UniProtKB/TrEMBL annotation:
Signal peptide feature range: 1-23
The organism of origin for this protein: Roseovarius faecimaris
Gene Ontology CC terms: membrane
GO molecular function, one term: metal ion binding
Domain Peptidase M48: start-end pairs: 36-221
Protein's name in the database: Tetratricopeptide repeat protein
């Protein structure tokens, strides 16, 4: 599947500011998310968090930032990943954010995010994130569901005491996992001097994570004290190279990518980068040759088969794309993003009933993918299930922050679906969120 700027978790804010904020959107890619999970797993285990229940998600933003809003996910900006030079640097950021979760720093936040995995709750969560990242922390999002200015201001920003605690705890997680703690020092060096700048000129990370010379010195001392516990980990090096390489292949120009395709020394990663670059140049022959070379290197890697499916799908080679996605699904039958891509290809191929079944499996495993909801709405409409099509559309609009439109479709779904059914209840959730937002606007 393409490194798509999915609007799952996106929120278009209605602001009382002269210049509106840009909505936060996710970059969803199964390969990158799997690679990040491999990097995060030993840290999360050290923190007492579940690697399977805590997602590492990428925000479509070139600024440098990372944040958490609940226990279910750690968000990393694409710009931060691209800025990291090695696995240890990126892992130090993940460890710091994991420490905020494990240390209970989210408990004090006044905005209720316990329904963050629902369509309406997702928009509410990212409202505060968009405000804090932009520096306009007094902004009020339409989907914030009545949160006050103070609530939004406190949602993202950490106190100095929390930052110091997260530094110390995060460094301990790194040491326990055998990860080089000097990565944290190198990350902090990027942000040195931020305190001398006005708030509007600071990096997003510095706005939400207060920096100081004392913090830097403490992290230096901790890194020195834990230095003897670091261990070489080729797997971490590989997955860092893979995540950053694929992200950069979609974010940078094809020419830039081709010039640097082999910089990490992994043949399959080099071929994958070339496949993406040639695909973006609309050179199907060379793109397929490159991805087939990567598959030959790692034949049971579901993510290379998934990328092959994407290349074919976007080149309008539908039936070969279905075959490629089917192979990827067989290798990773529980991956929601791969299931979503497979279902999308089946829908394009006219296999509507099977497509809806596969897409429902995807939605059940990951409710953050707005494109799956769009495809499910189309599939149910083709099958004559207008009530289900309406509830899927309502949830997709809720994720987009278009709560007025979401309410219209939720009301339609409520009238069409059996009262008390699971789908009817989902429509009620969206309808309640829409009505609350409308009351706030009055």
């Amino acid at each position: 599947m393409q490194l798509l700027r999915f609007f799952a978790l996106a929120l278009v804010l209605s602001l009382s500011l002269a210049s509106p904020l840009r909505a936060l959107t996710l970059l969803r890619d199964p390969d990158i998310e799997y690679a990040l999970k491999q990097l995060a797993a030993p840290i999360l285990k050290s923190a007492g968090l579940s690697p399977t229940s805590t997602d590492i998600l990428v925000i479509d933003d070139r600024s440098l930032n990372a944040f958490v809003v609940d226990r279910s996910a750690i968000f990393l900006h694409a710009g931060l990943i691209l800025k990291m030079d090695d696995a240890a640097m990126l892992q130090s950021v993940i460890a710091h954010e994991a420490a905020h979760i494990a240390n209970g720093h989210l408990v004090r936040r006044p905005v209720n995010v316990r329904n963050a995995r629902t369509a309406a709750g997702i928009g509410m969560v990212l409202a505060g994130a968009a405000a804090a990242t932009s520096g306009h922390s007094d902004a009020i999002g339409a989907a914030a569901l009545g949160a006050s200015n103070t609530a939004l201001r406190l949602l993202m920003a950490h106190t100095r005491a929390e930052e110091n605690a997260a530094d110390q705890t995060g460094m301990r997680y790194l040491a326990n996992a055998g990860i080089d703690p000097s990565g944290a020092v190198r990350v902090m060096e990027i942000f040195r001097g931020q305190e001398a700048l006005s708030v509007s000129r600071r990096d997003a990370y510095a706005r939400t994570h207060p920096l100081s010379s004392d913090r830097f010195r403490v992290v230096q001392r901790l890194a020195a004290g834990y230095a003897d516990r670091k261990r070489s980990n080729p797997e971490h090096d590989y997955w860092f190279a893979r995540a950053k390489s694929k992200l950069s292949a979609f974010e940078r120009s094809p020419k830039w990518t081709l010039n640097r395709a082999g910089e990490y020394g992994y043949q399959d990663v080099k071929l994958m980068r070339q496949a993406v670059a040639y695909h973006r140049q609309s050179n199907l022959r060379r793109s397929l040759a490159a991805i087939d070379g990567a598959i030959a290197t790692r034949p049971k890697d579901p993510y290379y088969h998934e990328l092959r499916g994407q290349i074919l799908m976007e080149s309008r080679q539908i039936k070969p794309a279905v075959s490629a996605y089917a192979r990827a699904t067989n290798l990773a039958p529980k991956n929601a993003l791969i299931l979503g891509a497979y279902g999308r290809a089946l829908l394009a191929d006219g296999q509507v009933k099977k497509a809806v079944q596969v897409l429902e499996k995807s939605r059940a495993r990951d409710g953050r993918d707005a494109r799956v909801l769009r495809d499910l709405a189309a599939g149910h409409a083709k099958l004559g299930n207008t009530g289900m099509a309406s509830v899927m559309t309502a949830e997709r609009y809720a994720m987009l922050g278009r709560l007025k439109d979401a309410g219209i479709h939720a009301k339609r779904a409520s009238d069409l679906l059996p009262r008390g059914s699971a789908a009817w209840q989902r429509a009620q959730d969206v309808l309640s969120a829409s009505e609350a937002a409308q009351k706030k606007r009055r």
